[in-house]
Structure formats: structure tokens, C-alpha cells
């Protein structure tokens, strides 16, 4: 998933490619960023192009594991990546719940705000063994960790505890 950013070097080059063009690149694997084989629910949290891997997890959810997806975007008319696929994924049981947050406009709302709005359900899912996966920018990930720390404090849990248990993983840039 690539979105062209004004003045962006890499995104400008990649979006200018034509079919048949080649590019020299490398992949940086993140082997810990996998949903795992458990049947425990997943809480997927991403913003912008961070939705790419998360959409792949949803698309591959043929076992209909409960997935609660929190997706942040700047503008719903241009940044709701995979938006046309979500209704089908919900109908097929590949995603249980989709919560979106729009950060530009009259009432800016970020994924961490969406998590706080759903704090009771998020805390219950995590208390019942849910795995949390965060993908996107570092600032977003820091905001998500802060929101989860607030949400989980009454239960005596923290993102650090979840990380130590292998139930909180990130792929951030």
C-alpha cells in the first residue's frame, strides 16, 4: 500500500511506476507481526497506509476469528483504503467490527480517541485474551499505547505487560 505524499521522495517514485517498470528495494521482515493461530479475538489498530497489513489479516481470516478493527484516516473520501471491501468482509464474518476515526475536518477524531470511546469493550476483549496489533506511524502508535494504558489501568494491565505476554505487537515507522 502506497499513498503519494506531496513532496515525498519514495511515494512519488513508486506511484509514478508504470506496468512493467522495475524498482530496486528491500523488505524488512517483522516476523513477530503475525496474528498467530489462536482463536482469541484480534484488536487491529492502524492509520493511513498502516491498514495494508491489517487488511491482509482480515482478508485471510477464513476461520472467522473475531476481529475488531480500528482504522484512522485523514479524509474519508480519499483515504478510506479498502472501504469498498469492508461490507463484504463483514458479511463473510472476516471482520466482526469496524470503527473508523477521521482526523481532518470539523471534529478531528484519532484512533486513540476511538479506542477511548470503546473502552469498555476493548478492556473486556483484552481481559478475555485478545491480541492487539498496531500498524502505522510512530506518533499514532504512541497515542494508542497511551490510550490503552488508560483503558487497562483499572484491570491492572499495561501495554508493557501485554507485550511481555506476546499479546501486543507493533509494526510502526
UniProtKB/TrEMBL annotation:
Q: What is this protein called?
A: Bifunctional P-450/NADPH-P450 reductase
- Which InterPro entries does the protein's record reference? Flavoprot_Pyr_Nucl_cyt_Rdtase, FNR_nucleotide-bd, OxRdtase_FAD/NAD-bd, Riboflavin_synthase-like_b-brl
Q: Name one GO molecular function term.
A: flavin adenine dinucleotide binding
Supply the Pfam families for this chain.
NAD_binding_1
- UniProt keywords, alphabetically: Flavoprotein
Domain Oxidoreductase FAD/NAD(P)-binding per the UniProt entry, residue ranges = 44-145
Which species is the source of this protein? Pseudoruegeria aquimaris
Q: Which GO terms describe its cellular component?
A: cytosol
Q: Name one GO biological process term.
A: homocysteine metabolic process
